[in-house]
Write a structure and sequence with these properties.
The complex is a heterodimer of chains A (about 230) and B (about 300).
Chain A: H1 2-13, H2 16-30, H3 38-49, H4 54-59, H5 61-66, H6 72-105, H7 114-138, H8 145-166, H9 170-183, H10 189-194, H11 200-223
Helix pairs in contact in A: 1-6, 2-3, 2-6, 3-6, 3-7, 6-7, 7-8, 7-11, 8-9
Chain B: E1 3-14, E2 21-32, E3 36-40, H1 47-54, E4 62-67, H2 75-78, E5 81-84, H3 96-106, H4 114-124, H5 129-133, H6 141-152, E6 159-163, H7 171-186, E7 190-194, H8 198-204, E8 207-212, E9 215-221, E10 230-235, H9 241-250, E11 256-257, E12 262-268, H10 270-282, E13 289-293, H11 296-303
Parallel strand pairs in B: 3-7, 3-8, 5-6, 6-7
Antiparallel strand pairs in B: 1-2, 1-4, 8-9, 10-12, 10-13, 11-12
Helix pairs in contact in B: 3-4, 4-6, 6-7, 9-10
The chains are: A mainly alpha (about 230), B alpha/beta (about 300).
Chain lengths: ~230, ~300
């Protein structure tokens, strides 16, 4: 498993283009309001996680790996941990940038608080749920189809909710919201991690979504065939 | 010979809704322990499909596949397997060293010995430290084939599946691949080789099977007592031709004289060739060259006329 994580990190950070792009995004995330730049974090996560399985499968790397003594679920677990490790490095870089900026601005006190750690942990936990969903898509969609799948899902749920409300079709809006709450749950991690007002329902949905996506990804990958060559 | 690989009535179909292609059609074969089997056949015959089934990448529609009595995707089997694909377009952002280190560790190698073992494996295929430090995207086709061979033979696997291992390599690369296969044979590995390079196949394989349209159409044994009869050429100095002809005739060996002192022993077994050389030596006729060949190209034409 360590080897799988190490390989993922090398894949992401051995090329200069990937490192520069992630560094720019880390800089964006670190600018005030520090570590709350959700869209930049999402873009970074999509850059890190998308194509995690599909690109291995299309390049033939997956076939060579599967010829080794490693199960398909272990491989998937390695990819998940690899994405999380890379995302953690990205968040750590963003935090360092934030410290450097605060030091320049003479505003260190705002960063030296438990809220920062909670924000980091929350970003990682949000990232875990999105990664599990991306991995699931990546087991059957080609190339970067997983990122498109994730964004499409988000757009479809939001549009259905918006149209349903605007057109007075409560059923459609409610169905879209329910689907979104279960597949793409939003958890107030600051509240959860500080131990007050723990929204158990949202937390349960988050845990269920992560587990369901990973299990489905493992089932799809275990049943998939991988052709190699033409004859 | 104890069969390590057992394939029985294997069928595999691709496509859906009326556009079906039967890639494998009732293939049955056994590969003995320590045997090197060559898969021969035209493009699209089903050779890579058979290899993919043996490696567990594809699931057959029907039939059975066992390796050492176990399922092909059993991790015990995989721990003893080395695989080299034909196409090596993967992990292009990794350096050669990182690529080999990853496979060393994935195959269960001791992490403490990663550096030494991967460097040794690279050296065996003619890749130096400088090459190992470069990213795979900068490698030529021949270098990729070499590093592919190095990863396949890490930890000396008991089973080797090689898909066109010498494709795109220079003559030195071909020789390196051949040496690796022969070294694996010498330590008792069971090898399945898919290759269009018939001369190389003949040099390393004990047996070959012809596959065409998903069917196993012919089997030829190339080595050992059960070897199919081969066409052999014995060459002597042209001025000793008559003496050589008499010596061979006296030994009861039918030989057809050719140009430049060459005798062609038609359909000769390994024993016949040895007898011919002995007869010539006893008659004090110098033997300049002995060539023995199954002439696979000719067999290929017989099996699949163009």
């Amino acid at each position: 498993m360590t080897a799988m994580v190490e390989r993922f990190l090398r894949q992401k950070f051995e090329g200069p283009l990937g490192v520069v792009t992630l560094a720019v995004l880390a800089l964006l995330v670190s600018t005030p309001p520090a570590l709350s730049a959700g869209p930049a974090r999402l873009v970074a996560l999509l850059l890190i996680a998308s194509g995690a399985v599909s690109r291995d499968a299309s390049s033939g790397a997956l076939q060579i790996i599967l010829a080794r003594p490693i199960s398909r679920t272990e491989y998937l677990g390695g990819r998940l941990l690899g994405v999380m490790a890379a995302y953690a490095i990205f968040l750590a870089a963003a935090t360092i940038f934030a410290f450097l900026l605060s030091f320049q601005l003479g505003n260190m006190a705002a960063l030296l608080s438990p809220a920062l750690l909670r924000a980091l942990a929350g970003a990682l936990l949000d990232g875990l749920q999105i990664t599990a969903l991306l991995l699931f898509f990546s087991t059957f969609l080609p190339s970067y189809g997983d990122a498109l799948g994730y964004l499409s899902l988000w757009i479809v749920f939001s549009a259905a909710d918006g149209f349903g409300t605007a057109l007075g079709r409560g059923g459609l809006a409610k169905t879209a919201r329910t689907a979104q709450e279960n597949l793409l749950p939003t958890v107030q991690w600051n509240a959860v991690l500080s131990g007050r007002d723990v929204p158990t329902e949202a937390l349960g949905r988050w845990a269920l979504a992560v587990t369901l996506c990973f299990v489905l990804a493992a089932v799809v990958l275990s049943r998939r065939e991988f052709a190699y060559g033409q004859d | 010979m104890t069969p390590v690989i057992s394939v029985e009535a294997l069928t595999k179909t691709f496509g859906r809704f009326g556009h079906k292609t039967r890639a494998l059609d009732g293939v049955s074969l056994e590969v003995g322990r320590g045997e090197t089997l060559g898969l021969i056949g035209p493009n699209g015959a089903g050779k890579t499909t058979l290899l993919s089934c043996l490696l567990g990448f594809l699931r057959p529609d029907s039939g059975s596949l066992r390796i050492d009595g176990r399922a092909v995707d059993d991790l015990w089997v995989r721990a003893r397997t080395g695989y080299m694909p034909e196409r090596l377009g993967f992990d292009r952002d990794l350096s050669g060293a990182s690529f080999l280190a990853f496979h060393w560790r994935l195959s269960g190698g001791d992490p403490a010995r990663t550096g030494a073992e991967t460097r040794a494996a690279a050296e065996r295929v003619g890749l130096d430290r400088l090459a190992l430090g470069k990213k795979l995207r900068t490698y030529s086709r021949g270098m990729l084939q070499r590093i592919g061979m190095a990863q396949a033979t890490l930890r000396d696997p008991a089973l080797l599946f090689l898909d066109e291992p010498a494709s795109g390599t220079d003559p030195l690369g071909v020789a390196i691949v051949r040496e690796h296969i022969l070294a694996a044979k010498a330590r008792g590995a069971t090898i399945v080789l898919n290759s269009h390079q018939l001369t190389e196949v003949e040099r390393v394989c004990d047996r070959i099977v012809f596959i065409d349209h998903g069917r196993l159409t012919r089997t030829e044994t190339l080595k050992g007592d059960a070897a199919s009869r081969r066409r052999s050429v014995v060459r002597v100095p042209p001025d000793r031709l008559e003496q050589a002809r008499e010596a061979l005739a006296a030994a009861g060996i039918s030989a057809e004289p050719g140009p430049e002192g060459a005798f062609r022993l038609a359909e000769a077994s390994e024993t016949d060739v040895a007898r011919a050389v002995k007869a010539l030596a006893l008659a004090d006729v110098p033997v300049l060259e002995v060539r023995s060949s199954a002439e696979l190209e000719e067999l290929f034409r017989e099996v699949r006329p163009s």
